[in-house]
Amino acid sequence: MDGVPQWLTAAFRKRIDELGQRMQRHPKHSVAWKKASELFEQLQKTFSEEQRGRFGEWEDQVGLQESIEKEEMYVRGFLDGFHMYACLDELISQIPADERFGKTDPTH
Questions:
Q1: How far is the C-alpha of 20 from the C-alpha of 43, rounded, in Å?
Q2: What is the dihedral of CA 34, 36, 41, 43, to 10 degrees?
Q3: pLDDT digits over 47-62, tens only?
Q4: Which phi-psi region, left, alpha or beta, contains residue 102 (left: φ > 0; alpha: ψ -120 to 50)?
Q5: With 0-12 CB in 10 A as exposed, 13-18 as middle and 19+ as buried, what is 74?
Q6: Which residue among 12, 33, 75, 87 is least crowded, i.e. fewest CB within 10 A of its CB?
């Protein structure tokens, strides 16, 4: 990913993998995964060997592309949030302390 240190990308990949595994094991998601698996098994029964192979290749490619895009969105979202926080912190530091967060003293 352009402009993102490799160590940070590796840390995000690890976190994304952990979250994905946890989500797949979570009861609210496991029902959906089970249903998807059952539908996939039914679909595969209708395929010839060649169709199964092509579908598997397609599925791998789509899964990889979606994974890459989601990872980039996660990293970009984190960096956007961090940048926004830094900008807000800088703006807040420019406000006199007695005027921050609605703490104005009407006697001044």
A1: 25
A2: 160
A3: 999 999 999 999 999 9
A4: left
A5: middle
A6: 87
What does pTM read for this prediction?
Answer: 0.61
- Pair of tokens at residue 99: 């005027």
Cα three-residue angle 13-19-55, rounded to 5 degrees: 75
Annotated domain spans of the chain: 11-46, 47-95
In 6-105, beta strands by DSSP E:
none
Contact between 29 and 23 (Cβ < 8 Å): yes
Q: Can you say whether the dihedral through the CA atoms of 45, 51, 56, 61 is positive or negative?
A: negative
Return all residues near 102 (Cβ < 8 A) that are at least 6 apart: none
- Exposure of 94 by Cβ count < 10 A (0-12 exposed, 13-18 middle, 19+ buried)? exposed
57 is written with which tokens? 């290749």
Provide the 8-state DSSP code for 52.
Answer: H
